[in-house]
Amino acid sequence: MALPKRIVKETERLMAEPVPGISAVPHEDNLRYFDVTVEGPSQSPYEGGIFKLELFLPDDYPMTPPKIRFLTKIYHPNIDKLGRICLDVLKSNWSPALQIRTILLSIQALLGAPNPDDPLANDVAQHWKENQNAAIQTAREWTQQYAKPQ
Amino acid sequence: MDSEDEVISVASSEEMMEDQDSDLSMGGDYSDVDLDVDDPDVGFETQDKDIKPKRRPYEVEFNIYGPADIQSHQDQQIDEVSAILGQPPEATAILLRHTRWNKERLIEIYMDKQDTLLEEAGLGKSLAKLPELKKVKGFVCEICCEDGPDLKTFSMKCGHRFCLDCYRQYLAQKIQEEGEAARIKCPGDGCNKIVDSKSLDLLVTEDLKDRYQVLLTRTYVDDKENLKWCPAPNCEYAVDCRVKQRDLNKTVPTVHCTCGHHFCFGCTLNDHQPAPCSLVKKWLKKCEDDSETANWISANTKECPKCHSTIEKNGGCNHMTCRKCKHEFCWMCMGVWSEHGTSWYNCNRFEEKSGSEARDAQAKSRQSLERYLHYYNRYANHEQSAKLDKDIYLKTEKKMTQLQSSSGMSWIEVQFLDAASQALQQCRQTLKWTYAFAYYLARNNLTEIFEDNQKDLELAVENLSEMFEKPTDQLSGLKVEMMDKTAYCTRRRIILLSDTAENLKNGGAHSLRLRPGSFD
């Protein structure tokens, strides 16, 4: 199946004018599958880490949202053990006018502002609410341990 | 027993005649009394119009609506409110859905703070301009990135413009895949404008429009508290019933759908009169979850008095040594073994205090298990019998044809079999739930009356059921007796349900009481 114009354009633009701190590169053999890296935002416990994600554009994209998942282990109340992300724009608030670029920015923003009141990883969220400093410390350690740039 | 039964059954059919004196005018003879008492005015509408059939205490008022009725109800309300608010119908529809079809509240809020309401409902100000397709110079669709001077585009009032193809695909995705209708938003990012029906008409194909209407009707019924879909498979009727959620402890609103399905309006489970919804829910949960496993454990095992490990004794003497904590005790009295002195292997210390408490707890749980099993067995038995009766019902038709050919009876003359089979089903259904209900009842005089009623009905049902299974050649001779018994069963059921319903409704000290904690 030919790649829709929309995906071609988006990919071109992602390569030509990349978003600072974010990269998304399509696989050569599957142009709907992207290797993504996101830098941890400064002044967050994820600062200094580089997080790998995978992103897939389903057949009915952009009518349905892209599928996206963290590959790097991360300690975050809205991201679970399998790397799945709890983010409104990836689900009910998806709009076909959104793009890969905007979604990745949203994910980066989520790293900067965890929301333990709408958790995906319950244990992490509870830790976050009961002792925020300790939770942030764990997140920092995990970043050091798993998200160090090679 | 038999003769007594007959006396009662004759009396009962006389009572029935008095009850339904409206039917007397029909001049039917006694044996032709309408057996399906639940539905007394079938075919007599014209004569009985001025005499409203009296409702029994356990019956509730309800109406059945088909898809067309529901549609016209919606349209009617939309038109009415549209005229008051001065908004076009498609916008009024969105507003009504926003306030869940509460007209009064909508009008009130609209008068109070129109702008906020319009914004919240996803409308924005004035929708007066008709939606239209446009070609816009230099337009690039944000969704598919197509451009060109011939591209047809569309936008709602919010100004988020996309090409027709994308809009179509978007709506198809929402309607077909996501089953969304009442709250489809503009495809623009973060835009809350709701796609109204007029715009939709312009954009989508006919089959999607139909689906859209079906979905809208569905949300209408879901939104209205007094409407519920009939849960029978493929049934497209909705039931309108005014019973309030908070009254469900006092009434059991069984409704009869046009499709033939009887169900409870409160919980949409199958008819479960006379037991109230909350008890039914509890009972079903009790029956299926493993709380009974725990009951078995407590009835068949004992706990080590020291470390409380669960122990099942499968042989050997009464001198127990707990494998875990090495505590030594006597299985009989649960007391410490060392206190037994020399009377080994023969515990005669039954009144000793150290063991009596452990034994009391044991006895209690055994008793409660037995109590539960008593009711459960009867409940399950009627459920099973109802299933078997249903099989028989399927064979009834065959029986009726056989009877027609063997005895020379006409079709109308063998209908008593059908009536008997239906009465059986219905009574078993009721009986089944009386047992679940009785499990939760506290003991008092009314409970005894309830149990008497239950016993009477059960006896009548078993009699009829037995008769029903007789070979075909005997059936024609039993016709009158069977009709009597059918009427009697139905009558007993009505008495039981009426009594119970009245008792539930009245509440108070002198009525049926539930065991403490039953309504938690």
Overall pLDDT level of chain B: 79
Helix content of chain B: 40-55%
Largest sheet of chain A: 4 strands, antiparallel
Written as H for each helix and E for each strand, in order along the chain, the element string of chain A is HEEEEHHH
CATH-level-4 superfamily name of chain A: Ubiquitin Conjugating Enzyme
How would you characterize the largest beta sheet of chain B?
3 strands, antiparallel
What's the structural domain tally of chain B? 2
Oligomer: heterodimer
Shape assignment of chain A: globular
What structural class should be given to the helix and strand makeup of chain A? alpha+beta
Task: Explain this structure.
The complex is a heterodimer of chains A (150) and B (520). With 150 residues, chain A is of the alpha+beta class. Chain A has one domain (5-147): Ubiquitin Conjugating Enzyme (Roll). Chain A has 4 helices and 4 strands. In chain A, strands 1-2-3-4 form a 4-stranded antiparallel beta sheet. The relative contact order of chain A is 0.17. The mean pLDDT of chain A is 90. Chain B folds into 2 domains: 7-57 and 285-301 and 372-513, Up-down Bundle (Four Helix Bundle (Hemerythrin (Met), subunit A)), CATH 1.20.120.1750; 67-223, no CATH class. Helix content of chain B is 52%, strand content 7%. Chain B is built from 17 helices and 12 strands. In chain B, strand 9 and strand 10 form a beta hairpin. In chain B, helix 1 (2-19) crosses helix 17. The two termini of chain B are 43 Å apart. In chain B, 28% of the residues are buried. The A-B interface holds A 4-6, 8-10, 60, 62-64, 93, 95-98, 102 and B 142-146, 160, 162, 166, 169-170, 173, 185, 187-191. Chain B: This is RBR-type E3 ubiquitin transferase. Chain B: Residues 1-48 are annotated as: Disordered. Chain B: Its EC number is 2.3.2.31. Chain B: Keywords: Metal-binding, Repeat, Transferase, Ubl conjugation pathway, Zinc, Zinc-finger.
